[in-house]
Amino acid sequence: METLPSAAERQQLVSFFLEVAAGQTADVAARFLEAAAWKFDEAVQLFYVSNESGGVESSFLPRQTNGITSAENMLASGSSVQGALEDEVRAPLPVVRDILNEDPAFFRSQPSLDVPFGISRHSAIWESSESVLSTSNGTHDNLASLYTPPFSLMFQGRFDQAKVEASLRGKWLLLNLQSHEEFNSHMLNRDTWANQAVAETIHSNFIFWQVYHDNIEGKKVCTYYNLFKLPAVLLIDPITGQKMNAWTGIVHPERLLEGLLPFLDNGPKEHHAFLLQKQKQRAAHDSAVINVAGKEAVKDDVEMVQAIATSLEDTRGPRPLVTDEESRPEKSHATNSNEKLTYPPLLEEPQGSKGLCTVAIRLPDGCRLQRKFLLTDSIKLLWSFCSSKLEDGLKRPFHFIQFYLGASRSLEYEKALTFDAGGLSNSLISLVWD
Protein backbone atom coordinates (compact mmCIF):
# COMPACT_ATOMS: atom_id res chain seq x y z
CA MET A 1 0.00 0.00 0.00
CA GLU A 2 1.37 3.36 -1.03
CA THR A 3 2.06 5.89 1.74
CA LEU A 4 0.54 9.33 1.38
CA PRO A 5 2.83 12.36 1.43
CA SER A 6 3.18 14.46 4.52
CA ALA A 7 1.49 17.82 4.96
CA ALA A 8 4.63 19.71 3.94
CA GLU A 9 5.02 17.57 0.83
CA ARG A 10 1.37 18.10 -0.05
CA GLN A 11 1.77 21.85 0.27
CA GLN A 12 4.82 21.68 -2.04
CA LEU A 13 2.86 19.62 -4.60
CA VAL A 14 0.06 22.18 -4.49
CA SER A 15 2.59 24.96 -5.17
CA PHE A 16 4.02 23.05 -8.14
CA PHE A 17 0.53 22.43 -9.48
CA LEU A 18 -0.34 26.13 -9.27
CA GLU A 19 2.80 27.00 -11.23
CA VAL A 20 1.63 24.72 -14.03
CA ALA A 21 -2.08 25.48 -13.88
CA ALA A 22 -1.94 29.24 -13.75
CA GLY A 23 -5.06 31.01 -12.52
CA GLN A 24 -6.34 28.16 -10.35
CA THR A 25 -6.80 28.20 -6.58
CA ALA A 26 -5.08 26.07 -3.99
CA ASP A 27 -8.35 24.24 -3.34
CA VAL A 28 -8.62 23.21 -6.99
CA ALA A 29 -5.01 22.06 -6.96
CA ALA A 30 -5.55 20.02 -3.81
CA ARG A 31 -8.72 18.57 -5.32
CA PHE A 32 -6.96 17.26 -8.45
CA LEU A 33 -3.96 16.01 -6.47
CA GLU A 34 -6.17 14.08 -4.09
CA ALA A 35 -8.11 12.61 -7.04
CA ALA A 36 -4.80 11.41 -8.51
CA ALA A 37 -3.60 9.99 -5.16
CA TRP A 38 -1.16 12.89 -4.86
CA LYS A 39 0.68 11.91 -8.06
CA PHE A 40 1.72 15.17 -9.64
CA ASP A 41 1.91 14.03 -13.30
CA GLU A 42 -1.47 12.30 -13.21
CA ALA A 43 -3.05 15.31 -11.52
CA VAL A 44 -1.77 17.65 -14.23
CA GLN A 45 -3.07 15.33 -16.97
CA LEU A 46 -6.42 15.13 -15.20
CA PHE A 47 -6.54 18.93 -15.07
CA TYR A 48 -5.86 19.38 -18.80
CA VAL A 49 -8.34 16.67 -19.77
CA SER A 50 -10.98 18.42 -17.71
CA ASN A 51 -10.18 21.70 -19.46
CA GLU A 52 -10.46 20.10 -22.93
CA SER A 53 -13.89 18.73 -22.01
CA GLY A 54 -15.21 22.18 -21.16
CA GLY A 55 -13.23 23.62 -18.30
CA VAL A 56 -13.07 22.80 -14.66
CA GLU A 57 -16.68 22.03 -13.80
CA SER A 58 -18.24 22.97 -10.54
CA SER A 59 -18.58 19.33 -9.64
CA PHE A 60 -14.77 19.14 -9.56
CA LEU A 61 -14.51 21.93 -7.03
CA PRO A 62 -14.10 20.84 -3.43
CA ARG A 63 -17.10 21.17 -1.14
CA GLN A 64 -16.46 22.75 2.23
CA THR A 65 -18.55 22.33 5.33
CA ASN A 66 -17.74 24.86 8.04
CA GLY A 67 -14.38 25.51 6.33
CA ILE A 68 -13.36 21.85 6.47
CA THR A 69 -13.32 19.65 3.35
CA SER A 70 -15.00 16.34 3.86
CA ALA A 71 -12.92 13.32 2.87
CA GLU A 72 -16.05 11.49 1.85
CA ASN A 73 -17.02 14.29 -0.54
CA MET A 74 -13.52 14.23 -2.04
CA LEU A 75 -13.74 10.52 -2.71
CA ALA A 76 -17.20 10.89 -4.23
CA SER A 77 -16.00 13.79 -6.34
CA GLY A 78 -12.96 11.76 -7.41
CA SER A 79 -15.24 8.96 -8.54
CA SER A 80 -17.27 11.40 -10.60
CA VAL A 81 -14.10 12.75 -12.22
CA GLN A 82 -12.94 9.26 -13.18
CA GLY A 83 -16.39 8.53 -14.60
CA ALA A 84 -16.25 11.70 -16.62
CA LEU A 85 -12.81 10.76 -17.94
CA GLU A 86 -14.02 7.32 -18.95
CA ASP A 87 -16.89 8.88 -20.92
CA GLU A 88 -14.57 11.27 -22.75
CA VAL A 89 -12.81 10.20 -25.98
CA ARG A 90 -9.08 10.42 -25.65
CA ALA A 91 -7.47 13.08 -27.82
CA PRO A 92 -5.35 11.79 -30.73
CA LEU A 93 -1.62 11.50 -30.27
CA PRO A 94 0.36 14.35 -31.75
CA VAL A 95 2.08 13.80 -35.12
CA VAL A 96 5.78 13.15 -34.64
CA ARG A 97 8.24 13.61 -37.51
CA ASP A 98 11.86 12.61 -37.28
CA ILE A 99 14.85 12.08 -39.60
CA LEU A 100 16.54 8.71 -39.52
CA ASN A 101 19.74 10.04 -41.04
CA GLU A 102 20.42 13.74 -40.78
CA ASP A 103 23.62 13.55 -42.82
CA PRO A 104 22.94 15.24 -46.20
CA ALA A 105 25.82 13.30 -47.75
CA PHE A 106 23.76 10.11 -47.34
CA PHE A 107 21.05 11.46 -49.63
CA ARG A 108 23.49 12.90 -52.16
CA SER A 109 25.10 9.51 -52.59
CA GLN A 110 21.90 7.85 -53.86
CA PRO A 111 22.00 7.04 -57.62
CA SER A 112 19.54 8.59 -60.01
CA LEU A 113 18.07 6.05 -62.39
CA ASP A 114 16.08 8.53 -64.44
CA VAL A 115 18.79 9.77 -66.80
CA PRO A 116 17.18 10.89 -70.07
CA PHE A 117 20.06 10.43 -72.53
CA GLY A 118 22.59 8.05 -71.05
CA ILE A 119 24.94 7.92 -68.08
CA SER A 120 25.18 11.44 -66.69
CA ARG A 121 28.49 13.01 -65.75
CA HIS A 122 26.76 14.84 -62.89
CA SER A 123 25.27 11.81 -61.15
CA ALA A 124 26.15 12.10 -57.46
CA ILE A 125 27.01 8.43 -57.12
CA TRP A 126 30.20 9.02 -59.10
CA GLU A 127 31.43 11.89 -56.92
CA SER A 128 34.80 11.29 -55.36
CA SER A 129 35.09 10.71 -51.64
CA GLU A 130 36.77 14.11 -51.25
CA SER A 131 33.58 15.92 -52.27
CA VAL A 132 31.36 14.06 -49.78
CA LEU A 133 30.75 15.95 -46.53
CA SER A 134 32.62 14.61 -43.52
CA THR A 135 30.71 13.64 -40.38
CA SER A 136 31.65 12.97 -36.77
CA ASN A 137 32.36 9.35 -37.68
CA GLY A 138 34.80 10.33 -40.43
CA THR A 139 34.69 10.80 -44.19
CA HIS A 140 32.31 8.59 -46.20
CA ASP A 141 34.30 6.34 -48.51
CA ASN A 142 32.59 6.27 -51.91
CA LEU A 143 33.38 2.83 -53.32
CA ALA A 144 31.59 3.69 -56.55
CA SER A 145 34.55 5.89 -57.50
CA LEU A 146 36.49 2.70 -58.25
CA TYR A 147 34.04 1.93 -61.07
CA THR A 148 33.53 5.41 -62.48
CA PRO A 149 32.27 5.44 -66.11
CA PRO A 150 34.68 6.87 -68.71
CA PHE A 151 33.15 10.35 -68.85
CA SER A 152 36.14 11.73 -70.76
CA LEU A 153 35.38 9.36 -73.65
CA MET A 154 31.59 9.46 -73.57
CA PHE A 155 29.32 11.39 -75.91
CA GLN A 156 26.58 13.20 -73.98
CA GLY A 157 23.29 13.03 -75.86
CA ARG A 158 20.68 10.71 -77.32
CA PHE A 159 21.38 7.68 -79.50
CA ASP A 160 20.33 9.43 -82.71
CA GLN A 161 22.51 12.41 -81.81
CA ALA A 162 25.47 10.09 -81.29
CA LYS A 163 24.93 8.58 -84.75
CA VAL A 164 24.75 12.01 -86.36
CA GLU A 165 27.94 13.11 -84.59
CA ALA A 166 29.78 9.96 -85.68
CA SER A 167 28.59 10.39 -89.29
CA LEU A 168 29.73 14.00 -89.45
CA ARG A 169 33.16 13.16 -88.02
CA GLY A 170 33.58 10.03 -90.16
CA LYS A 171 33.99 7.68 -87.19
CA TRP A 172 32.42 4.42 -86.11
CA LEU A 173 29.98 4.46 -83.18
CA LEU A 174 31.01 2.27 -80.23
CA LEU A 175 28.05 1.61 -77.93
CA ASN A 176 28.18 0.16 -74.41
CA LEU A 177 24.86 -0.95 -72.89
CA GLN A 178 25.13 -1.46 -69.12
CA SER A 179 22.99 -2.82 -66.29
CA HIS A 180 22.89 -1.81 -62.63
CA GLU A 181 22.37 -5.44 -61.60
CA GLU A 182 25.32 -6.88 -63.59
CA PHE A 183 28.70 -6.49 -61.89
CA ASN A 184 30.40 -7.07 -65.27
CA SER A 185 29.19 -3.60 -66.25
CA HIS A 186 31.26 -2.09 -63.46
CA MET A 187 34.18 -4.37 -64.37
CA LEU A 188 34.13 -2.89 -67.88
CA ASN A 189 34.43 0.60 -66.39
CA ARG A 190 37.28 -0.41 -64.12
CA ASP A 191 39.36 -2.68 -66.39
CA THR A 192 38.47 -2.13 -70.06
CA TRP A 193 37.47 1.51 -70.54
CA ALA A 194 40.16 2.63 -68.08
CA ASN A 195 42.87 0.82 -70.08
CA GLN A 196 45.19 3.38 -71.68
CA ALA A 197 45.47 1.61 -75.05
CA VAL A 198 41.70 1.18 -75.28
CA ALA A 199 41.07 4.80 -74.28
CA GLU A 200 43.53 6.16 -76.87
CA THR A 201 42.10 3.94 -79.61
CA ILE A 202 38.52 5.01 -78.85
CA HIS A 203 39.44 8.69 -78.60
CA SER A 204 41.16 8.66 -82.00
CA ASN A 205 38.86 6.44 -84.06
CA PHE A 206 35.40 6.12 -82.48
CA ILE A 207 32.50 7.99 -80.92
CA PHE A 208 31.79 6.28 -77.59
CA TRP A 209 28.29 6.23 -76.08
CA GLN A 210 27.33 4.48 -72.84
CA VAL A 211 23.79 3.98 -71.55
CA TYR A 212 21.86 1.98 -68.94
CA HIS A 213 19.33 -0.54 -70.22
CA ASP A 214 16.48 0.65 -67.99
CA ASN A 215 16.13 4.24 -69.19
CA ILE A 216 14.35 5.47 -72.31
CA GLU A 217 17.33 5.40 -74.69
CA GLY A 218 18.59 2.08 -73.30
CA LYS A 219 15.24 0.37 -73.85
CA LYS A 220 15.17 1.72 -77.39
CA VAL A 221 18.60 0.25 -78.17
CA CYS A 222 17.74 -3.11 -76.54
CA THR A 223 14.61 -3.41 -78.67
CA TYR A 224 16.23 -2.33 -81.93
CA TYR A 225 19.24 -4.65 -81.68
CA ASN A 226 17.40 -7.46 -79.87
CA LEU A 227 19.73 -7.54 -76.85
CA PHE A 228 19.05 -9.93 -73.99
CA LYS A 229 22.47 -10.46 -72.35
CA LEU A 230 24.14 -7.54 -70.60
CA PRO A 231 26.49 -5.80 -70.59
CA ALA A 232 26.85 -5.50 -74.36
CA VAL A 233 29.33 -3.64 -76.56
CA LEU A 234 28.22 -2.88 -80.13
CA LEU A 235 30.12 -1.43 -83.07
CA ILE A 236 27.57 0.52 -85.13
CA ASP A 237 27.73 1.95 -88.63
CA PRO A 238 26.41 5.46 -87.94
CA ILE A 239 25.26 5.95 -91.53
CA THR A 240 23.00 2.89 -91.79
CA GLY A 241 22.71 1.82 -88.13
CA GLN A 242 24.02 -1.64 -89.05
CA LYS A 243 25.67 -3.68 -86.29
CA MET A 244 29.21 -4.38 -87.53
CA ASN A 245 30.44 -6.30 -84.47
CA ALA A 246 29.21 -7.16 -80.98
CA TRP A 247 30.50 -8.46 -77.64
CA THR A 248 28.58 -9.47 -74.50
CA GLY A 249 29.67 -9.95 -70.91
CA ILE A 250 33.09 -8.89 -69.72
CA VAL A 251 35.31 -7.89 -72.67
CA HIS A 252 39.01 -7.74 -71.85
CA PRO A 253 41.12 -4.99 -73.46
CA GLU A 254 43.13 -7.39 -75.68
CA ARG A 255 39.99 -9.00 -77.09
CA LEU A 256 38.33 -5.65 -77.74
CA LEU A 257 41.38 -4.19 -79.50
CA GLU A 258 41.69 -7.26 -81.71
CA GLY A 259 38.03 -6.92 -82.72
CA LEU A 260 38.38 -3.20 -83.45
CA LEU A 261 41.61 -3.59 -85.43
CA PRO A 262 39.98 -4.04 -88.90
CA PHE A 263 38.03 -0.79 -88.43
CA LEU A 264 40.96 1.49 -87.60
CA ASP A 265 42.24 2.14 -91.14
CA ASN A 266 38.93 3.11 -92.77
CA GLY A 267 35.94 4.97 -91.38
CA PRO A 268 32.29 4.41 -92.33
CA LYS A 269 32.48 6.82 -95.27
CA GLU A 270 35.45 4.99 -96.79
CA HIS A 271 33.69 1.70 -96.12
CA HIS A 272 30.61 2.75 -98.09
CA ALA A 273 32.74 4.18 -100.90
CA PHE A 274 34.56 0.86 -101.13
CA LEU A 275 31.28 -1.06 -101.20
CA LEU A 276 29.96 1.20 -103.96
CA GLN A 277 33.10 0.71 -106.04
CA LYS A 278 32.97 -3.02 -105.48
CA GLN A 279 29.34 -3.08 -106.57
CA LYS A 280 30.21 -1.24 -109.78
CA GLN A 281 33.08 -3.63 -110.48
CA ARG A 282 30.82 -6.60 -109.92
CA ALA A 283 28.21 -5.18 -112.28
CA ALA A 284 30.88 -4.57 -114.93
CA HIS A 285 32.23 -8.08 -114.45
CA ASP A 286 28.78 -9.62 -114.80
CA SER A 287 28.19 -7.64 -117.98
CA ALA A 288 31.53 -8.79 -119.41
CA VAL A 289 30.75 -12.41 -118.55
CA ILE A 290 27.42 -12.15 -120.36
CA ASN A 291 29.10 -10.70 -123.46
CA VAL A 292 31.81 -13.37 -123.48
CA ALA A 293 29.21 -16.09 -123.06
CA GLY A 294 27.26 -14.71 -126.02
CA LYS A 295 30.35 -14.59 -128.23
CA GLU A 296 31.31 -18.13 -127.27
CA ALA A 297 27.83 -19.32 -128.12
CA VAL A 298 28.07 -17.74 -131.59
CA LYS A 299 31.54 -19.23 -132.07
CA ASP A 300 30.27 -22.67 -131.10
CA ASP A 301 27.48 -22.39 -133.65
CA VAL A 302 29.95 -21.45 -136.42
CA GLU A 303 32.28 -24.32 -135.54
CA MET A 304 29.36 -26.73 -135.53
CA VAL A 305 28.31 -25.63 -139.03
CA GLN A 306 31.89 -26.01 -140.29
CA ALA A 307 32.17 -29.47 -138.75
CA ILE A 308 28.96 -30.59 -140.44
CA ALA A 309 30.14 -29.27 -143.78
CA THR A 310 33.49 -31.01 -143.43
CA SER A 311 31.86 -34.30 -142.56
CA LEU A 312 29.67 -34.11 -145.65
CA GLU A 313 32.61 -33.37 -147.96
CA ASP A 314 34.83 -36.07 -146.52
CA THR A 315 33.97 -39.30 -148.31
CA ARG A 316 36.96 -41.16 -147.03
CA GLY A 317 35.64 -41.53 -143.57
CA PRO A 318 36.64 -39.88 -140.40
CA ARG A 319 40.22 -38.85 -139.90
CA PRO A 320 41.90 -38.94 -136.58
CA LEU A 321 42.12 -35.59 -134.89
CA VAL A 322 45.70 -34.61 -134.38
CA THR A 323 46.38 -31.97 -131.78
CA ASP A 324 49.64 -30.22 -131.42
CA GLU A 325 49.81 -29.80 -127.69
CA GLU A 326 52.67 -27.99 -126.18
CA SER A 327 54.57 -30.01 -123.70
CA ARG A 328 54.13 -28.64 -120.24
CA PRO A 329 57.04 -29.51 -118.06
CA GLU A 330 56.22 -30.06 -114.44
CA LYS A 331 56.80 -27.11 -112.22
CA SER A 332 60.18 -27.52 -110.73
CA HIS A 333 60.46 -26.69 -107.10
CA ALA A 334 63.24 -24.46 -106.08
CA THR A 335 63.95 -26.75 -103.21
CA ASN A 336 63.29 -30.36 -102.43
CA SER A 337 62.42 -31.87 -99.10
CA ASN A 338 66.08 -32.11 -98.10
CA GLU A 339 66.98 -28.50 -98.95
CA LYS A 340 66.23 -25.58 -96.63
CA LEU A 341 64.92 -22.17 -97.61
CA THR A 342 67.03 -19.17 -96.72
CA TYR A 343 65.68 -15.88 -95.42
CA PRO A 344 67.35 -12.66 -94.21
CA PRO A 345 68.81 -12.79 -90.71
CA LEU A 346 66.43 -11.67 -87.96
CA LEU A 347 67.81 -9.23 -85.40
CA GLU A 348 66.57 -8.81 -81.85
CA GLU A 349 63.12 -7.35 -81.39
CA PRO A 350 63.39 -3.53 -81.16
CA GLN A 351 62.31 -1.78 -77.97
CA GLY A 352 60.67 1.57 -77.41
CA SER A 353 57.73 3.21 -79.16
CA LYS A 354 59.04 5.59 -81.83
CA GLY A 355 59.36 4.30 -85.38
CA LEU A 356 57.96 0.88 -84.45
CA CYS A 357 54.91 -1.10 -85.48
CA THR A 358 53.29 -4.22 -84.08
CA VAL A 359 52.18 -7.01 -86.43
CA ALA A 360 49.97 -9.92 -85.36
CA ILE A 361 50.21 -13.14 -87.42
CA ARG A 362 47.55 -15.85 -87.36
CA LEU A 363 48.97 -19.32 -88.13
CA PRO A 364 47.13 -22.08 -90.04
CA ASP A 365 46.55 -24.02 -86.79
CA GLY A 366 44.74 -21.05 -85.21
CA CYS A 367 47.62 -19.87 -83.02
CA ARG A 368 48.78 -16.30 -83.13
CA LEU A 369 52.23 -14.69 -83.11
CA GLN A 370 53.05 -11.06 -82.44
CA ARG A 371 56.25 -9.04 -82.85
CA LYS A 372 57.48 -5.48 -83.16
CA PHE A 373 59.37 -4.30 -86.26
CA LEU A 374 60.87 -1.04 -87.42
CA LEU A 375 58.71 0.83 -89.93
CA THR A 376 61.72 0.93 -92.26
CA ASP A 377 62.34 -2.84 -92.10
CA SER A 378 61.60 -5.02 -95.10
CA ILE A 379 58.52 -7.24 -94.91
CA LYS A 380 60.83 -10.17 -95.74
CA LEU A 381 61.59 -10.27 -92.02
CA LEU A 382 58.09 -11.71 -91.60
CA TRP A 383 59.33 -14.87 -93.37
CA SER A 384 62.44 -14.90 -91.20
CA PHE A 385 60.37 -14.59 -88.02
CA CYS A 386 57.69 -17.16 -88.90
CA SER A 387 60.10 -19.74 -90.33
CA SER A 388 61.82 -19.91 -86.95
CA LYS A 389 58.50 -20.54 -85.20
CA LEU A 390 57.13 -23.23 -87.55
CA GLU A 391 58.25 -26.83 -87.71
CA ASP A 392 58.40 -26.88 -91.52
CA GLY A 393 59.13 -23.18 -91.86
CA LEU A 394 62.51 -23.70 -93.58
CA LYS A 395 61.31 -26.54 -95.82
CA ARG A 396 57.87 -25.46 -96.96
CA PRO A 397 57.22 -22.12 -98.71
CA PHE A 398 54.42 -19.86 -97.52
CA HIS A 399 53.01 -16.37 -97.98
CA PHE A 400 50.75 -13.94 -96.10
CA ILE A 401 47.26 -12.53 -96.66
CA GLN A 402 46.13 -9.18 -95.31
CA PHE A 403 42.37 -8.72 -94.89
CA TYR A 404 40.50 -5.44 -95.35
CA LEU A 405 36.84 -4.60 -94.99
CA GLY A 406 35.32 -6.91 -97.59
CA ALA A 407 38.62 -7.53 -99.44
CA SER A 408 42.10 -9.01 -99.05
CA ARG A 409 45.53 -8.90 -100.67
CA SER A 410 48.43 -11.31 -100.86
CA LEU A 411 51.92 -10.49 -99.58
CA GLU A 412 54.63 -12.30 -101.55
CA TYR A 413 58.26 -12.71 -100.54
CA GLU A 414 59.46 -11.20 -103.82
CA LYS A 415 57.88 -7.82 -103.10
CA ALA A 416 60.42 -5.29 -101.87
CA LEU A 417 58.25 -3.38 -99.43
CA THR A 418 58.78 -1.91 -96.00
CA PHE A 419 56.26 -2.22 -93.20
CA ASP A 420 55.39 1.44 -93.57
CA ALA A 421 54.97 1.33 -97.36
CA GLY A 422 53.05 -1.94 -97.20
CA GLY A 423 50.53 -0.57 -94.71
CA LEU A 424 51.31 -3.28 -92.16
CA SER A 425 51.62 -0.98 -89.17
CA ASN A 426 49.53 -2.39 -86.30
CA SER A 427 47.76 -4.89 -88.54
CA LEU A 428 46.66 -8.52 -88.42
CA ILE A 429 47.73 -10.90 -91.22
CA SER A 430 47.31 -14.62 -91.86
CA LEU A 431 50.00 -17.14 -92.85
CA VAL A 432 49.07 -19.49 -95.72
CA TRP A 433 51.10 -22.43 -97.05
CA ASP A 434 51.90 -22.34 -100.78
CATH fold descriptor of the domain at 147-270? Glutaredoxin
Describe the strand arrangement of the main beta sheet, using strand numbers: 10-9-13-11-12
Overall body shape:
elongated
Write down how many β-strands occur, each being a DSSP E stretch of 2 or more residues: 13
Radius of gyration: 48 Å
Strand content: 15-25%
Distance between the termini: 116 Å
Q: What name goes with the CATH superfamily of the domain at 147-270?
A: Glutaredoxin
Protein name: UBX domain-containing protein
Domain UBX: 352-432
Region (Disordered): 316-345
GO cellular component, one term: nucleus
What does this structure look like?
The protein has 434 residues and is α+β, with helices and mostly antiparallel strands. Among the domains are: 7-87, Helicase, Ruva Protein, domain 3, CATH 1.10.8; 147-270, 3-Layer(aba) Sandwich (Glutaredoxin); 356-433, Ubiquitin-like (UB roll), CATH 3.10.20. Helices cover 38% and strands 15% of the residues. It has twelve helices and 13 strands. It has a five-stranded mixed sheet with strand order 10-9-13-11-12, with no helix packed on it. A four-stranded mixed sheet has the order 6-5-7-8, with helices on both faces. β7 (232-236) and β8 (243-248) form a beta hairpin. α2 (26-35) crosses α4 (71-87). The longest helix has 46 residues, at 268-313. The chain starts with 6 loop residues before the first helix and ends with a strand.
Short structural summary:
InterPro entries: UAS, UBX_dom, UBX_domain-protein. The protein has about 425 residues and is of the alpha+beta class.
